[in-house]
Design goal:
Helix content: 40-55%
CATH class of the largest domain: Alpha Beta
Shape: globular
Strand order of the largest sheet: 14-13-12-11-10-9-22-23
Structural class: alpha/beta
CATH superfamily of the largest domain: Ribonuclease Z/Hydroxyacylglutathione hydrolase-like
Number of helices: 26
Strand content: 15-25%
CATH architecture of the largest domain: 4-Layer Sandwich
CATH topology of the largest domain: Metallo-beta-lactamase, Chain A
Largest sheet: 8 strands, mixed
Distance between the termini: 45 Å
């Protein structure tokens, strides 16, 4: 039965893509896998595979069509102590209801004492709560990470419980699983006293916990293609197993005793360290390897991989639809397939195979990706991991040495993060799922053909990458995008062939005075929405950012864009440069970018043939709503009018100065009553009005009186709060991106 289970596993993989995706390429992948199975000419293997696939296909079909029932009793939630995630006054955790349904719960802490209680809680609890239960919100921008899909597919969670009050906290009965979670949380609390970087590394590499403080660093390592080093996987598991085996040998225990202990402890470590996809795969492979050795089953390495993949599919059917599962299983399979090759050969091919998947999910890669993996992985194995364990182990009796190790880790991380700066990255753009699969198949063919054809195959594959790159970077249409950025504005103008990229406002989060303990660490919406979209379109530079006025919901994320993107010019209403708040915001970037004040009469180029006129302000101000930058002109053959947060009185003044007509009007001040004057709307006579507002915002935007005014004038409108991202192209007109259940 050598190397037979792997054929079953590969066909199951192909079948899962057919069931869950159903596109042409997934069917082609299945056909290729079936042809390869038939090529073995082993009737028993073929018949067994058909039987397994009939069962698996039915199972996956049922899983896909499984109705999602709203929990009826969500007042009692069972929670492990290591599930609580604190971020300022926000408490978030995954738990189980009485009927075993998994939910994500969110609660806003009332006191600092309450925060400290959950921070140091180490035993399993049952929470009696009151609140509301709702479905998680799907992504509402093109190519945005879909958190609701992630929760459903990777965490098996379909509902979020918004807790209003925690009525009672009871201790759960102790169990073996509970003790493992308890031990993990106790070590996590102890690690809170370690030096900062040692604490992060210990939690990530030993406990499988990525803290809030590590999130920014994780994004940088993701850019470098090294994030897998900070996710518990084969590298860490085999290192820990080797260390444990050496310890048992020092204690003069027999190999038989060592194997039995490993068979018992490895499954416990999965629970203890967080049960991530990569950890389950790595531990399962290691467990089968020990079982193979203990009982002389003579299961081949590839068949062990096949059994692990089939087991993981039974537990988590969507495992290969996420980035973690795809990279974890693909790269581990390649390591087995290339086990007799040298390190350079392995690293090269691992990176060639991971490239299409990374471009599908991340849209960019590092110039030195292959070299970094080749150099850093050995350093991680022989220096970072052991030093982390030594530093944690000796902290209680030799803290000075732990701080010395912390300094070494800081030097290691600083040198790597220097290479994570945007100028070292190649922004390629997003590959579709179909293109990704085609490139993976062609890469596999290049690996398996004889050496004399490999160069020709490589040139062919390179020409496909180049063609895709050119198609992404040089589109033949003009686009205008109103991002669903929450309560704020951010509008992108893409000219055809990407000759001009203009952004009007950046969005941003309004902040209010809070006690220090309540302040949450959050990533900027521009990073998750705007920058993510730009990179998915192959855009690395912005020719001009136009700031309408000073409010944080319009310019709050400016610094993030200036850090992450190459920006040539920032334009703003004349006089805003004298505003102290604005000066403070732009001060770090004052020398590296051109800053251009604008007032009536100025023009800005948005496409090679088209420009926008500045209609307001007439005179310098301080960047208040009344000083908003108003832009008017042609884009893609249509007339556009962007008014920022201009008030109604100034809207009327604009109409008195010149007769304005526009095909598309950006609603003033998010649809507030302070804008959208009747006279103004009657004069402009837009085909459609575009409103940018946040869902359930505290200001009640857009106001019902304004909506009624639009309806009375029979002007159709889109609202980002209801329709998600609004995308207009010169060929296809308007598209919206709000997910419908």
């Amino acid at each position: 039965m050598k190397d037979r289970v792997i054929f079953v596993a590969l066909i199951v993989v192909a079948l899962s893509f057919v069931v869950f995706m159903g596109n042409l390429m997934s069917w082609l992948f299945l056909v290729v896998a079936i042809v390869r199975l038939i090529w073995t000419r082993q009737p028993k293997l073929i018949l067994g595979t058909v039987i397994v696939c009939c069962f698996v296909g039915s199972f996956l079909g049922v899983e896909k069509q499984r109705p999602v029932k709203r929990p009826t009793n969500y007042q009692r939630i069972l929670v492990w102590p290591d599930a609580f995630k604190l971020n300022g006054d926000s408490l978030q955790f995954e738990g189980k209801l009485a009927d075993k349904t998994r939910v994500l719960a969110v609660y806003y802490l009332q006191t600092k004492a309450e925060q400290a209680y959950f921070q140091h809680l180490t035993h399993p609890v049952i929470l009696q709560v009151s609140g509301t239960c709702s479905r998680p919100e799907h992504a509402t921008n093109q190519n945005e990470f879909d958190y609701a899909t992630y929760l459903k597919q990777q965490r098996r969670i379909n509902y979020i419980v918004q807790i209003e009050q925690i009525r009672q906290i009871q201790a759960q009965k102790w169990s073996l699983v509970g003790w493992l979670h308890h031990a993990r949380q106790v070590l996590s609390c102890r690690a809170d006293h370690y030096p900062p970087l040692l604490r992060q590394y210990f939690k990530c590499l030993v406990l499988g916990i990525q803290t809030n403080s590590f999130q920014d660093t994780a994004q940088q390592f993701k850019r470098l293609g090294l994030i897998h080093l900070f996710s518990l996987s084969g590298l860490h598991v085999f290192y820990f197993v080797g260390l444990f085996s050496q310890l048992l040998l020092r204690l003069h225990l027999t190999k038989e005793t060592r194997d039995w202990l490993l068979l018992l402890l490895l499954p416990a470590y999965v629970i203890f360290a967080g049960s991530s996809v990569s950890l389950i795969r790595a531990v399962s492979l290691c467990w089968l390897r020990v079982l193979n050795r203990r009982f002389s089953f003579q299961i081949s390495a590839l068949d062990c991989f096949g059994w692990v993949l089939l087991f993981n599919f039974a537990v988590q059917p969507y495992v290969l639809l996420g980035l973690g599962g795809q990279l974890s299983y693909l790269l581990s399979f390649l390591l087995l397939f290339l086990r007799d090759k040298n390190a350079v050969f392995k690293t090269l091919w691992l990176n060639l195979f991971s490239l299409p998947i990374l471009l599908h999910h991340v849209y960019e890669w590092h110039y030195l990706l292959v070299l970094l993996n080749l150099l850093v992985m050995p350093l991680f194995s022989y220096a970072v991991l052991p030093l982390t364990l030594i530093g944690a182990g000796c902290f209680s009796f030799l803290p000075g040495f732990s701080w010395l190790i912390n300094w070494g880790l800081a030097a290691f991380q600083t040198s790597l993060l220097y290479l994570a700066r945007p100028q070292w990255m190649i922004v390629f753009g997003r590959l579709t799922g179909t293109i990704t699969l085609i490139l993976l198949i062609l890469t596999a063919i290049m690996l398996t053909v004889s050496k004399k054809y490999r160069i020709s195959m490589g040139l062919f594959l390179g020409s496909i990458y180049l063609t895709i790159f050119l198609l992404i970077h040089y589109p033949l249409v003009d686009r205008v995008i109103f991002f669903d950025i929450g309560q704020g504005d951010s509008i992108l103008i893409e000219s055809r062939l990407h000759k001009r990229i203009t952004l009007i406002d950046t969005g941003g989060r309004l902040t209010f005075n809070q006690a220090e303990w309540r302040k949450q660490k959050r990533s900027a919406r521009a990073e998750r929405v705007t920058i993510n979209y730009l990179k998915s379109r192959g855009i690395k530079r912005i020719d001009r950012i136009c700031l309408s006025h000073q409010d944080a919901d319009h310019i709050g994320d400016l610094a993030v864009l200036l850090e992450e993107m190459t920006v040539k010019e920032v334009a703003f209403p004349a006089g805003m440069e004298n505003n102290p708040q604005f000066r403070h915001r732009i001060w770090p970037y004052r020398q590296q970018i051109r800053w251009r004040p604008l007032q009536t009469g100025a023009k800005i180029q948005v496409t090679p043939q088209e420009e926008l006129q500045v209609l307001h302000p007439e005179r310098p101000g301080l960047g208040t709503n009344e000083d908003s930058l108003v832009l008017y002109g042609q884009i893609g053959g249509k007339t556009w009018l962007f008014t920022g947060d201009l008030d109604a009185a100034n809207e009327v003044t604009l109409c008195e100065r010149q007769r304005l007509k526009a095909d598309f009007l950006k609603a003033g001040h998010h649809g507030s009553r302070t804008a959208s004057a009747q006279t103004f709307l009657e004069t402009v006579q837009p085909e459609r009005i575009l409103i940018s507002s946040g869902r359930n915002n505290r200001y009640g935007h857009p106001h019902s009186d304004v909506i009624q005014r639009y309806q009375d004038l029979q002007i159709p409108f889109y609202n980002t709060a209801e329709n998600g991202m609004l995308l207009w192209s010169s060929t296809d007109g308007w598209q919206t991106f709000r997910h419908k259940e």
